[in-house]
Amino acid sequence: MAADDRIMFWGEDILDPYGGAFKVSRGLSKRFGERVLTTPISEAAIVGIAAGRAMRGLPTVVEIMFGDFVTLCADQIVNHATKLPWVYNNQVQVPLVIRTPMGGYRGYGATHSQSLEKMFCGVPGLTVLAVNSYTDPGALLREAFALETPVLFVEQKILYARFVDALPVAPEKPDVALVCYGTMVEFSVQAAHRLSQEEEVYCKVVPVQQIWPLDEMSLVRELQSAERVLVIEEGTNGYGFGGECARLLARLGKPMGFVAANPHPIPNSRVYEDRALPSVDRIVEKAIQLFEQT
Amino acid sequence: MTSGDRFNADHLGLSLTQAERLYFQMRLIREFETTLLDLFSQNAVFGTTHTCLGQEANAVAIMEALDRNIDTVWSNHRCHGHFLAYCGKVAELFAEIMGRELGVCAGRGGSQHICWHRFHSNGVQGGIVPLALGTAMAGKAEGAVTVVFLGDGTLGQGVVYECLNLAALWQLPVLFVLEDNGVAQTTPSELVFSGNAQARAEAFGLESAYSDTSEVMALHATASDLISRIRNGGSPCFWHIRSVRLGPHSKGDDTRSPEQMAALQQRDPVRLNERLVDTPLRLEQRCKTIIREALAQAEASPVNDGSLTA
Ligand SMILES: Cc1ncc(C[n+]2csc(CCOP(=O)(O)OP(=O)(O)O)c2C)c(N)n1
Question: Dehydrogenase E1 component domain: which residues (chain B) (predicted)?
Fold first, then answer.
């Protein structure tokens, strides 16, 4: 916002001193004044207004307080912001970024913990980016603006408490590549560590930031040297990141495995939530099972 | 907009007197829509369409009151009249509906997804309203106004009310035009609508206006007044126009009775406003020629089969 004074940012409860439900925007309203607006609880309207403003060349960021509520903006994203540039034969561009916290492990229950990004992966004209704790989220946000397309910018909420870390060096000939995004990157790093210590299985963690569209070439390049592939996502099983990776990687003929959440709503009880969602244990277990396949 | 791609001054009748121009534009829209329905009935055109027969006066009155260079229009599925009164691009609209490369969107959009300069339409009821608020916000500093069209059936969409609230709250220069033809597809509004549309808008703090006429000069006077108020004051307005749909919802899908249709004919804006001009027949002939030539031009353009663009 400092670099480009056309940028505006709005969302629910984002003004100081509160600074947003997850404090991501703390300090922004103080610093940028009228360029930061608090909005009514009208997710469809605030995304659509941002898209309309963006269509006039003015980059706009909207925060959706919980990712679970992106369903309320689905029509604006699917039938308007992403569709109009194409059907209008590229007479308009929509530099719109929709930032939203997804994900569980916080005990928030079934409607405040989901990873719903897969509902939007596959939508033509949309880019879906996901932050992880091994890359600078600010740099990723800058990339989002450079795209000049609508972007769904996913921030898994437990990552808000993390500092950016360096990804451990990968082995040259990994036994297993762990393909993952968001929170699952740090889970995979922990699983890789345990697998090397306890099982002498050496893994390469492959974090993906642009989960839609997936860059097939770079994914294939990253996985070339690996014997096996395990795809890990926090959302529920089926029609998701795992399926998309399988579609792009099938031709490599490598044994593949998948880790995802159980296909039911996220339970309230902490123990039950942990069991429903992917865990380091489950990644370790599935990685070992890959050896039984071959 | 490139210099070679301008508003069609000739088809907008810019050299005519205002009364002649408004009549001429209505007549041109009427010829366009009836020709289009003929083409569909001959299976010469593929797909779907929604004509604005009976509502032409609203379109031309409003476009006449706009500054076409800076103001924005958001239209819905019933957008041909709005579009033609905005820019006069007859051949490009025919070509768009026919999926030809000459189309305003190179045939990608079709009847209800069109865009040129600051005119946009989309076919999802109510979905364009937030976009209209966004362009209104973007244009406020340059004194630009955005107009967004709604049908009475679209008052069933929740996002419309989110937007009435935000337009008033953020003081956005937007004119909501409710073209109330009393029917949505086949459903009469009394089966789906409770209360009063103007009162709904006023409850959110918008100024409102009401017209129950097909008289184009009266509609134009109201449009000018509302648009200049919005431009000068920067705040939104809601205009409820009682109008008539004289044609089918789409093609051959009218369920209304012949008696009902005969009564609605009394409100036909093209017939009603004929007395505004001395030579309606000459203007009608002129329109027929434009339509014939434009159609030939559209038909000569290659079909967009996707081989040119990604
Ligand atoms: C969200 C949505 N639901 C349903 C439709 C299908 N549809 C197209 S036009 C129409 C009727 C719209 O009625 P109204 O708003 O009164 O406008 P009119 O057709 O009378 O101009 C319907 C139901 C649609 N386009 N969008």
Answer: 25-297
